[in-house]
């Protein structure tokens, strides 16, 4: 039993519970880079640990009702068979390091782009709200904002599950990170809490299928997996408790940090530059966002103040 592995499991488990991602994208590189575990053993042990860990976080979100069940059902249709197939593909390739390196580089780029897309989406949402406020003051007709759960698109959702499952079976990476990216792109109106809850639940059968394959054909190590579970189970429970209650803005910030950290680590960025970049993002990011929001609101107030009294009166009559 390794205390440092237990601590790593605790931290990664908390991140998984909070954001729905980071299990394979963080734990597999940590095991390989910091603990000297072979890649195949890291993938196998991480997946078996995740098969036990993720149901804990899922249970919390089930109790809170933050799960989009139709999305879960359609994703599982594609992910469960393809995850098992991914293990067979990896075995057929002989655990080729070149293949895994190519997949990890592609995932790293995708994760970094996804982190940027979340920030861009938040900025566009801010500008839209400010623009709507000015438009209402001018008396312009503004379309209502759509609310409620998104309408499920079965075929793209099954494909997301199939591609994600194949990659997870081969690398242990993607059950949270990759699939969350795809869900964000396909269902942009899905709230942050439901996004995390839905992803955690769909990952349970996906990871279980991949874990079964690695138990049969991989390089599973009981001692390593046991240490991971001792730390990760309480970690994922605490993280899921926080994510099911936390404001969407907090979860989005956590998603950006985890996506960026996972992506840059998969791209083999050294630890010191990675730490500096993350420190800047964590410290400067919120301050910059707060300044941008104040500037946008002030600009909107100035535009509204510049509107003449007659136009404001006409706008109020139009709204009435």
Keywords:
single chain; 320 residues; mainly alpha; 12 helices
> Helical element count?
12
In the residues, how many domains can be counted? Answer: 1
Which series of helices and strands comes N to C? HHHHHHHHHHHH
Radius of gyration: 22 Å
Strand content: under 5%
Share of helix, binned: over 70%
Shape: globular
* Number of DSSP strand runs: 0
Measured between the Cα atoms of the first and last residue, the distance is 69 Å
The major beta sheet can be summarized as:
none
| SSE class | mainly alpha
- Unreliable spans: none
What is the typical, i.e. mean, pLDDT?
Answer: 80
Topology:
Blueprint: H1 3-19, H2 23-35, H3 39-64, H4 69-92, H5 97-137, H6 154-171, H7 177-186, H8 192-217, H9 222-245, H10 248-266, H11 271-306, H12 309-319
Helix pairs in contact: 1-2, 1-9, 2-3, 3-8, 3-9, 4-6, 4-8, 5-10, 5-11, 6-7, 6-8, 8-9, 10-11
Description:
- The chain has 320 residues and is an all-alpha fold.
- The protein is built from 12 helices and no strands.
- The N and C termini lie far apart (69 Å).
- The mean pLDDT is 80.
């Amino acid at each position: 039993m390794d205390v440092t592995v237990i601590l790593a499991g605790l931290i990664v488990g908390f991140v998984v519970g909070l954001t729905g991602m980071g299990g394979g994208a963080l734990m597999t590189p940590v095991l390989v880079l910091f603990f000297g575990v072979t890649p195949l053993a890291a993938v196998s042990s991480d997946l078996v640990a995740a098969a036990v860990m993720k149901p804990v976080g899922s249970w919390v979100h089930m109790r809170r009702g933050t799960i989009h069940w139709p999305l879960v059902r359609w994703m599982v249709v594609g992910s469960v068979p393809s995850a098992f197939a991914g293990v067979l593909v990896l075995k057929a390739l002989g655990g080729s390091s070149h293949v895994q390196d190519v997949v990890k580089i592609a995932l790293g780029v995708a994760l970094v782009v996804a982190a940027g897309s979340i920030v861009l989406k938040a900025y566009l949402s801010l500008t839209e709200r400010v623009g709507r406020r000015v438009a209402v003051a001018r008396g312009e007709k503004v379309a209502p904002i759509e609310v409620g759960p998104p309408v499920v698109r079965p075929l793209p959702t099954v494909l997301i599950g199939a591609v994600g499952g194949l990659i997870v079976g081969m690398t242990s990476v993607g059950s949270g990170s990759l699939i969350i990216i795809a869900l964000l792109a396909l269902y942009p109106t899905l709230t942050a809490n439901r996004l995390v809850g839905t992803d955690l639940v769909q990952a349970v059968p996906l990871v279980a299928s991949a874990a079964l394959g690695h138990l049969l054909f991989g390089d599973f190590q009981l001692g390593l997996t046991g240490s991971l579970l001792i730390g990760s189970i309480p970690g994922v429970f605490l993280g899921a408790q926080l994510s099911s209650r936390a404001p969407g803005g907090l979860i989005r910030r956590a998603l950006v940090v985890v996506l960026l950290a996972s992506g840059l680590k998969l791209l083999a960025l050294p630890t010191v530059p990675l730490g500096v970049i993350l420190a800047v993002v964590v410290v400067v990011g919120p301050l910059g966002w707060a300044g941008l929001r104040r500037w946008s609101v002030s600009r909107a107030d100035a535009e509204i103040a510049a509107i003449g009294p007659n136009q404001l009166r006409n706008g109020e009559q139009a709204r009435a």
